[in-house]
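question for whoever is on the cluster today: can someone run the full assembly for these? two chains, 692 residues total. i dont have access anymore since they changed the login thing
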Amino acid sequence: MVAVVEDLNARLRGFESLRERAAGEPEWLQRRRRPALERFFALGIPTVKNEEYKYTNLSALPQVEFFDAPPAADTSAAAYRGLGGFTLRFDSGRLAAADGEVPQGVSVRSIAERLRNDPDGLESLLGACAAFEDHALAARNTACFEDGAVIEVAPGAVVEEPIHLVFAAASAVSNARVLIAAGRNSQVRVIESYIGAGKYWTNAVTEVYAGENAVVEHYRAQLESVEAFHTGCFQAVQERASKVSTFSLSFGAAVARNDINTRLNGEGCECALDGLYAVKGGQHVDHHTAIDHVMPHCNSHQLYKGVLDGSATGVFNGKIFVRRNAQKTDAIQNNKNLLLSDKADINTKPQLEIDANDVRCTHGATIGQLDAAALFYMQSRGIDVERARNLLTYAFAADALERIRLEPLRTHFENLLLRTFADKTEDRQGVTEWRP
Amino acid sequence: MLEIKDLHVSIEGRAILKGIDLSVGEGEVHAVMGPNGSGKSTLASVLAGREGYEVTSGAVTYKGRDLLETAPEIRAREGVFMAFQYPVEIPGVTNMYFLREALNAVRKHRGEEELSAGEFLKVVREKIGPLQMDRSMLKRAVNEGFSGGEKKRNEIFQMSILEPALAILDETDSGLDIDALKIVAAGVNGLRSANRSFVVVTHYQRLLNYIVPDYVHVLADGRIVKSGGKSLALELEEKGYGWTEETAANPQPVGV
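^ ran it for u. tokens below:
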């Protein structure tokens, strides 16, 4: 019991500055933050006793808050530039730099700046999608975030140039916050990149509100330091005939946990949740998805592929809820894993709850190793076994990247993949090195 | 070129090849025929270096070197090629990319310059004609979704690109209709030369009407029970495999 009290006191120290900062914020936000903090303390950082975190151990997180600030991330690296469009860089969740021109039809601003100068219109959006009742980490972010990006797309605006948000870790804990609000008939593309060096914790929340007939294309490149903790929550709410896609690339972090949720609130919605994770050594990666089919005639599509080497561990848990009213739902879920080592481990679990009777829901999960017959076939043509392994691994993983419609980003991800698995494959035909 | 001496091979402790002797000279075409279970495919697999086969005794030399001690990829680079009975599908790797990788591995081994994508394309254009292959097959993943005939043609196409010194065709005719068989055979015949040898493993005599061998060997229960010229194949066709067993020097009951 003493230990618990001490732990609580220790944790509270990290939040002393919150009260002070909140004083300058609009009252509606203060009213939102307080219950979030209370909720976080009530729930605490999830332990493995929590069914949703059974295989993902976050017990080191309370300590990580007191670590020294990590060394500055190298934001000049090619990986964070060169996609065109407009880039905002955040250091530990606070706006640090802007680059490029804001495309027509969209407003991209710092949340802190927007709150300071014209908070009107934000009340109905900020914190509206990201529920934290049952989500301690989203609650913590809601209580603590200082800044972040707010992207508002005007009704009818089609924004082709991507908006790139780079989150670099510069302190022990970063609360990254993103709000995307796409107006009626609008279209927008947003990329989030997470980078850093050393040991730290990024706790990110992205809220997406897709208005009627809006199209939101969202990409997330989690390239944190391999010593870091990354917890990310993506939460979308979709109105009638809207389309949301989110791709999660997860290569970094010692422990990564991604919660990806969308609520299909109107008829005729579509959502595509896809991802690729590639981990090795002692890394751990966890994707928890949840799609809530509330209304009829909605489609959802999921493809998550994973490559696990060394003694890496992974989790995929895909929930699909089909409510009573959600007739003609068409939901497809797939999770495919490639284990490159005997010590690598994956726990994959589909979870379907279907209350409607005229629906099509399919799910599949595979765990496999490299095909020995294919390896021998390649060897028999003169290709050495290591190279053959790399090629087959690349081929398995690259298939997931087909889901990315933003061509330069797909190429960039392919290059990251090549660097991860095959040094020599960089001369691969059709893949040009992406340089800023 | 290839010398096989008293080769004994087991799979999981079960003897499959029970003393094979075979000598293949430069530029020769040898047909190895035999009923199912006689050990034909085992022989082809051992020569290519497939895992799971235990050589219990005997020796195989290729160009005077111990072939069995050589890794499969090195055998390939040294000029040994096996056309698979069941070519393997490799999703996600295009035929074109796969072939360039293979050819460059072979070229590098020979101390030749690796080919760029453009240079490789020229080689491909030159070689693809006789096999009547659809160009789209090059852009598709290796063997994925190919018909049986397309897979076999792709094997011969790979052979024509890699230009081996010793080609082992493992039941290349199985599952082919007569038109496809003619195309495949024409592809093989086009590659025959004074310094390239072939071991053609087949169940049926039919193939040998199109790829005319210099020598025919009949395999039964892990041994070569009869060897002769091309007329032996016709004799076999007429009298059936039962005949060879009766006339074999040391008749052994065939059967599992």
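summary bc i know u wont read the tokens: The longest strand of chain B covers residues 14-24. The radius of gyration of chain B is 18 Å.
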